[in-house]
Design brief:
Structural class of chain B: mainly alpha
Strand content of chain B: under 5%
Largest sheet of chain B: 2 strands, antiparallel
Shape of chain B: globular
Oligomer: heterodimer
Distance between the termini of chain B: 62 Å
Largest sheet of chain A: 2 strands, antiparallel
Number of strands of chain A: 2
Radius of gyration of chain B: 22 Å
Distance between the termini of chain A: 38 Å
Mean pLDDT of chain B: 83
Number of helices of chain A: 6
Helix content of chain A: 55-70%
Strand content of chain A: under 5%
Helix content of chain B: over 70%
Largest interface: A-B, 72 and 63 residues
Chain lengths: 169, 500
């Protein structure tokens, strides 16, 4: 549940920067990626001849295309720089919740191979439910264990999806 | 084998208990996915896709197809009841569907959607039956240059009609093409861009990428906007049946919508969404009461809903007959086919008639099941909207992880899932469509294969790309679709000063 006042909620989604500026950053990232990718392609792959194209020909074409598209994105962003379009980014409680759940997902994936599916899912579920305000720790743990048990029963036991067993026998 | 003989063969396959169950369960799961806000057909299909790998090939593909058309149907329920489209193809339905709800005609609107989906699905399936074999036989005439033209034009046209700027969409397609080159190259077996990492040498799997981009990214959006989803309205059963007058207004709209949807579904692009807008415009144009549109016009619900279901069905024609998916969901269906060892394309109909006709026949049965089950189950779908969001969020993450790991038991894929999830969230924030990235990743290997085969065949003569009539026609059609809007804008721009 969202316990904030309507006024707080209204400011929670803050409009920051411009979408044009963000797209310029995307274009720069694209150019950097194209430079790295193209360099590796030219250094490690053979281009061959046109009649016998090597494994490097298509990556070279992709590099040229990526440079062109990055420039096109930058150009369109430059044209839109005066427009009113802006990015809506989360702030305050929204951002905190997003970062915590994002971290929990990453920690879940890291812990899965050695804790096993049931235990890792129960821990992740408990933490996520608590962050998302689904009640007390006890309620979160019970709900998460129930969900993990249900998923484990359906997919691992019934459909025989071989999930990591981890430290559990 | 004639289409009718084929259909009978398909019915034989589809009515086996496990396939019937797969179609029924898939349609219901798909509807649930469509109903849940934030989970569209792509995210839903991506989440459930790996689980179909545990089933026999035909059964798995029947389940996946059922999830697809089930989700198209389910997306309308939330659009009508709470003004929240379950997926983008239902956006238009909110315009008049929600207004019907406000007038106390929610049940009638839902029934009109259900009947319309059934009619569109049935006519669409018949169309696929008739068109696919014809297109398959034409597809047999395609050489590598024609396939290269088709895949390239498909990607370009998709970028033209998808949301956002053309440059941004092309940028994301290129990024998808780049990612598709990671791993062992198919023709000479050379390892590319793996940096000595074994998992990278195996290439990037489509499933973790798609589940991350659509499933995990949607989870992050749900986390951010927690508690801001409107509560559903309860629908009394007595409201369920449309009046005779409402049915009379809906019937021609269903047929017009089906026609538009079927044709739009055959060309590259987000056909389901596009067809709903086109059908809505057409209904308003031909209506005797255009002033009712936006205030609960029956035709405004019937036409677009029939169109989106027909487009979803006819999209299977290019996939099954040419092996080219024109939408992200169909790209996932194609990925599933390949995991099952089934190669979609012109030879599918002769080499695997059980798969080809089995899927088509099951679609018809699935449409019957949707009609029979969904009207009585409207109350249940509404209750589904009341599932606490925290539980929904945790469930989606668990399903995503199981689904991704099931593909090749790889922890590396789970990190790909997380990485693409965060990337998908950022793309959504930047209002960039994620579909071109997935299509680039799926079609990349095909584009490269046909490009290099063409060059091998012609000994390096680039003229081969326009040497056949089929390739030339495809290039010309693609060019026409790409240039239509800019040329029209230019002509209008030139005409304006003269008239002024």
């Amino acid at each position: 549940m969202d316990h904030r006042q309507p006024a707080d909620r209204a400011v929670a989604a803050r409009r920051v920067g411009g979408s044009a500026r963000a797209r310029l950053i995307v274009a720069v990232v694209g150019l950097g990626l194209a430079a790295g990718y193209g360099t590796v392609a030219l250094q490690t792959l053979s281009l061959g001849r046109l009649g016998q194209p090597g494994a490097g020909l298509f990556p070279l074409m992709v590099t040229i295309l990526l440079v062109s598209m990055s420039v096109a994105v930058a150009a369109s962003a430059w044209q839109e720089r005066g427009a009113n379009a802006s990015l809506v980014m989360p702030v305050g409680a929204d951002r905190r919740r997003l970062l915590l759940v994002g971290t929990a997902i990453a920690a879940y994936v890291a812990a899965l191979p050695w804790l096993g599916f049931f235990l890792a899912s129960s821990l992740f579920g408990s933490a996520a439910l608590r962050i998302l305000g689904a009640g007390s720790w006890a309620r979160a743990v019970v709900l998460a264990a129930g969900l993990a048990l249900l998923t484990d029963g359906l997919f691992v036991r019934l459909l025989e999806v071989p999930m990591p067993r981890g430290i559990l026998p | 084998m004639s289409p009718w003989e084929g259909f009978l063969v398909g019915l034989g396959v589809a009515v086996s208990p496990e396939n019937l169950l797969a179609a029924l369960a898939g349609a219901l799961v798909g509807t649930a996915i469509g109903v849940l806000p934030g989970l569209g057909p792509v995210a839903g299909a991506a989440l459930v896709l790996p689980l179909t790998f545990t089933l026999p090939p035909v059964t798995g593909l029947i389940a996946l197809a059922a999830i697809y058309y089930g989700s198209m149907y389910g997306g309308s329920t939330t659009a009508i009841l709470v003004n929240v489209p379950g997926e983008t193809a239902s956006v238009v339905t909110t315009l008049d569907g929600y207004q019907m709800t406000r007038k106390g005609r929610a049940g009638a609107a839902l029934a009109i959607v259900a009947f319309g989906s059934f009619i569109a699905g049935t006519i669409g399936t018949a169309g696929v039956m008739l068109f696919s074999p014809v297109l398959s036989s034409i597809g047999l005439l395609f050489g590598p240059p024609a396939f290269f033209a088709l895949t390239t034009v498909g990607l370009l046209v998709l970028c033209r009609v998808t949301g956002g700027s053309l440059a941004a969409s092309l940028f994301l397609v290129t990024l998808g093409l780049l990612l598709s080159t990671i791993g062992v190259e198919a023709i000479t077996g050379v390892r590319r861009f793996d940096f000595g990492v074994l998992e990278l040498a195996l290439g990037l799997e489509v499933v973790p990428a798609a589940v991350g981009l659509f499933g995990i990214a949607e989870v992050l959006v749900l986390v951010e906007t927690l508690g801001r989803t409107p509560r559903p309205r309860t629908t009394p059963l007595r409201e369920m049946l449309p009046t005779r007058q409402e049915l009379g207004r809906a019937a021609p709209a269903w047929l017009r919508g089906t026609g538009i949807g079927f044709l739009v579904g055959l060309v590259p692009g987000p056909a389901a969404t596009l067809s709903t807008f086109m059908a809505y415009r057409l209904e308003r144009a031909v209506s005797k009461r255009p002033e009712e549109f936006g205030h609960g016009a029956v035709e405004g619900v019937a036409g677009p809903e029939a169109a989106n279901n027909a487009a979803a069905t006819s999209g299977l024609v290019p996939l099954l007959s040419l092996g080219i998916p024109f939408s992200p969901v169909l790209a996932l269906v194609m990925a599933a086919m390949m995991v099952h060892g089934v190669q979609p394309g012109p030879l599918l109909i002769t080499q695997r008639p059980d798969v080809f006709w089995g899927i088509l026949a099951s679609m018809y049965l699935g449409n019957v099941a949707l009609l029979a089950l969904n009207l009585p189950l409207v109350g249940m779908w509404v209750r589904l909207l009341r599932i606490p969001q925290p539980l929904l969020i945790v469930s989606i993450v668990l399903f995503s992880v199981v689904g991704t790991y099931a593909v090749r038991n790889s922890t590396f894929d789970l990190w790909v899932l997380v990485g693409f999830g965060f990337a998908g969230y950022v793309l959504q924030k930047l209002s960039l469509d994620r579909a071109p990235l997935v299509l680039g990743l799926v079609l990349g290997p095909l584009v490269e294969k046909h490009l290099r085969e063409s060059l091998f065949l012609s000994r390096g003569d680039p003229a081969i790309f326009v040497s056949s009539k089929i390739a030339l026609t495809i290039w010309a059609a693609g060019l026409g679709m790409l240039l239509y809007s800019p040329v029209r804008a230019l002509v209008r721009g030139l005409a304006r000063p003269r008239s002024g």
